[in-house]
Amino acid sequence: MLKPATTPPRISTMVLLTALSTLSMNMFLPSLSNIAATFQTDYAIAALSIAGYLAVTAVLQLVMGPLSDRYGRRPILLSALASFVAASLGCALATDIWVFLGFRVLQGIVISGWVMSQAAIRDMVPPREAASLMGYVVMAMAVAPMMGPVFGGILDEAFGWRSSFLAFAGMGTAMFILCCVKFGETNVNRSATFTKQFRAYPELFLSHRFWGYAICTAFSTGTFYTFLSGVPLVARSALELPPAMLGFYMGTITAGFICGSFLSGRYAKRYALTTMMIAGRISACTGLTLGLVLFAAGYVNVFTFFGATLFVGFGNGLTMPSSNAGALSVRPGLAGSASGLAGALTVGIGAVLTSATGAILTDAHGVFQLFGVMWSCVAVGFVAALTVLWIDRRTACPTEGA
User: Fold this and answer.
1) Could you give the domains of the chain?
2) pTM for the full model?
């Protein structure tokens, strides 16, 4: 018989939760064509399993965060994992495309693994230590998407596309059991009622500091979304890269992110949140600026292009753990709400930037246009980080000691 956890979760548990949250997004992507063929529908209809999933994760983050502030992180997480297992089984057994899409959308509830992990970290430790721990946790956000499609493709070839969703069900069940015994409640200051909780929201929603942190996170992530949406066109028109080689070179931005996140884990305890955020924005801005200068000089090749994006990934790895920790530290009693709101903002801005990039890029000038959009995203994040620094200096850094 399982003994309910009574101690806070370990970092390894939160890394696994974050990995599952990101794996569920893209592990099944190699199977989209086979899914469309099975249900005898257009590929565009099957692709709604991506757009619908993203939309629902944005909405669910807005809901789950406040619920966890009221009822605790543990019950919301366990309920979400149980729902994820049921939804995964529903996808695996579906005989109709709309039934499949309905269950696929419900799978988005697994985003609670990321939201609750962030909130739990902030419940347990002060801001700088939270940024350090988040540096290690967000590494899973880089590694899992790299490995997911490979694993999903292998499963599809060996057992068919439904096996990916059976694997999701198995992983969800394993995480449910692990969290039952290893994820004790961390929210010890729950609101007595929703009415009392709602009265505290203006302090979060009207905080310039919170929005500075959240916007920095959203546009740092948005730079990555922009890269992913635009690099296939640039690889074909300017770099003449075959698809197999493109996949290899795309790993540079992820490798940079892993290195930056690791350094955040090592050094975020020693430096102010804004110092890490600004250092990351400087790295990303420097890489893109050098890239544009080299392109203008006629040096357009895989080394100048992907060398520049390596700096972007590295900068994001430095910035995001601290900006996430900062957003959750503005009002520690509403850490779950802050995590959900910041996460929803990130997904929403990412969706807008992805669509905008696809509309802007052309074959003739794609490399300059892509880096221009990415540079603009970095600049917005940079301004947001500087704004938080300015606010902190005016108010004696209350976030740092929260």
Assistant:
1) 11-186 (1.20.1250.20), 197-395 (1.20.1250.20)
2) 0.82
